[in-house]
Design a protein that fits this description.
mainly alpha; 14 helices; disordered N terminus; globular
């Protein structure tokens, strides 16, 4: 690979769509809130944010759009290996940090946990698989999560798969072929929603392939939004779009039509929000807010679940009432945002800068 191909201009990250960054932050907060609430309310119809798990599908769609925007015209210049390095530097430090945090809370949960049920060898295997993003689902007391030490990593596993397929195949395909693949993926998504009654799967051994259906459609349609320039100019602004996004997470459950409403949100509503977000005008007063929460969304997503297990142990032992529960969740979320900020500032950003500098020098 030539010196020109490895130049900083080719390797650097492009400017972000700041409203989309802000919406990513809203989705990150929604999924954290959902994880707290699902511990307390197993009946999602009683949960005010019972569809918060759909934030993952929003992430997938946004990822397809951003990857196409950032890399469509330079993957060939970079080369596949350099593309993989770029993605690994961006994503993997927090995979490791989240796994370490999950291991620590597994051993030192003050309200419970059962590390004594696992041999040292099994714990080592589970931890190594977590760091290397190998789905194993070997923890029965954690509902056979594919990544027991860091449950949200299941979506990162599929993100890695999508990035590999993009670099090897999708970036070279003409738009017509992408449309055909997206239609097939939409059919698969509809089947998963109908068969399961929801689009909540992908995180466990029993729902593994649901994750493939969820990312296949959303990632592809994200690519298509960029390739076809489906960007809708509008004046909704960040607040208007944030409200529209939040409505998807807070829509009520319907026992009969739940699978259909969730599927329609993923098939149509989220792509529409991406198109609107890319075309909206951001007021200068919201710029710092959007940039901050856009930066925070991934660290928050990858570090919060270690403490959700602790909260689950506390809830099982104490069964707090609604008022106390609300206070605990609010305080916990402030704590988790603080932890995510510290991890981002003192671990993630310095590690990524170091790896990037070593990569350019090499």
């Amino acid at each position: 690979m030539s010196e020109k191909q490895l130049s900083p201009d080719i390797l650097k990250t492009r400017q972000h769509f700041e409203i989309l960054d802000g919406l990513r932050g809203i989705a990150g907060l929604a999924v954290v809130t959902f994880h707290f609430m699902e511990v307390a309310y197993s009946d999602y119809s009683q949960d005010f944010i019972g569809h918060g798990f759909l934030a993952v599908d929003f992430f997938f769609c946004l990822s397809g759009f951003v990857i196409a925007y950032a890399y469509d015209d330079r993957v060939d210049k970079m080369g596949v290996i350099e593309f993989f390095k770029s993605r690994a530097i961006r994503l993997h430090p927090l995979v490791v940090v989240g796994s370490i945090m999950g291991l620590l809370t597994f051993f030192f949960d003050p309200f419970g946990g059962h590390p004594e049920l696992y041999s040292a060898g099994r714990i080592i295997v589970l931890f190594v698989c977590s760091i290397l993003m190998i789905p194993i689902g070997g923890m029965p007391d954690r509902y056979f999560n594919l990544f027991g030490f860091n449950a949200p990593a299941w979506s990162l596993f599929w993100e890695y798969v999508a990035n590999i397929v993009y670099a090897l195949v999708l970036n070279r395909l003409k738009r017509g072929y992408l449309v055909a693949l997206a239609v097939l993926a939409a059919v698969g998504l509809c089947y998963v929603g109908w068969h399961s009654g929801n689009l909540m799967g992908g995180w466990s051994t029993g729902t593994f392939w649901d994750g493939a259906a969820r990312i296949s459609y959303s990632f592809l349609v994200g690519l298509l939004i960029y390739r076809f320039n489906w960007i809708i100019k509008n004046k909704l602004g960040f607040i208007g779009l944030a409200i529209l996004l939040a409505l998807a997470f807070m829509m009520p459950f319907s026992q009969k039509w739940n699978w259909l409403t969730e599927t329609l949100v993923v098939l149509i509503y989220f792509p529409l929000l991406i198109a609107l977000g890319a075309g909206a005008t951001l007021r200068s007063s919201f710029k710092k807010f959007c940039v901050f929460w856009g930066n925070m969304s991934y660290p928050l997503y990858m570090t919060h679940y270690a403490f959700i297990w602790v909260f689950a142990s506390y809830f099982a032992a104490n069964k707090p009432g609604p008022g106390r529960l609300a206070v605990i969740i609010i305080v916990s979320e402030v704590f988790l945002v603080t932890i995510a900020y510290l991890v981002m500032t003192y671990i993630d950003i310095p590690v990524r800068k170091y790896l990037s500098s070593k990569r350019v020098k090499s």
